[in-house]
Sequence to fold (235 residues):
Amino acid sequence: MSPPYQSAHDEIHFINRSGWLRAAVLGANDGIVSVSSLIVGVAAADPSPGPVLIAGVAGLAAGAMSMAAGEYVSVSSQSDIERADIAREKQALIDTPVEEEAELASIYESRGLSPTTAALVAKEMTEKDALGAHVRDELGLSEVHSANPLQAALASGLTFTVAAALPLTAAMLAPAGTIIPVVVGTTLICLAGLGALGAQAGGAPKLRPTARVLFWGAAAMAVTALIGRLFGVNV
Fold:
């Protein structure tokens, strides 16, 4: 886990955690919700342990691979776009340096600097690191926000696996005939912990993220339980 970003005057920020934290929270939330919903839906149709556990294990394995692959592909696409934009900006600085400096000045002016000050800042930034200035101020990219496909894939796949194992373990240990209430209770507790933990890692208030994951997790389980009841077929 990367430490919080700390500025020169000792002000702590957590934005540099946004990349892996988003993937980790997404993976953990999806692991808990999808596997518990799958277990509840199957148990509502056929409460015998065999089909429930098979569905849970299959959902864990397939979901973890799907999350990791999906994160890797999507973040790789984002990274490809970023590199292509940077390459275009680099070429533009070679072909039209005067126009690019004027564009940089207009950006600074739009942020509140006077035309004279904006032109001076653009000139000095161009002399120091023209590409870095355009990447940061024109494209809005930085090392803090840069996409890391492998990091996102590992964070998402690993947290999915760990989180999905919780409702699956609860289903395996549940007494006969109590799979649904045990899994639902375990899932809601885990979701509350996940919401609070994600907020803590990001330095945000805990109440809203916790309520958010609880609501959507409960909704997902309710829908799959209803489907299981409606169809009521042996799996």
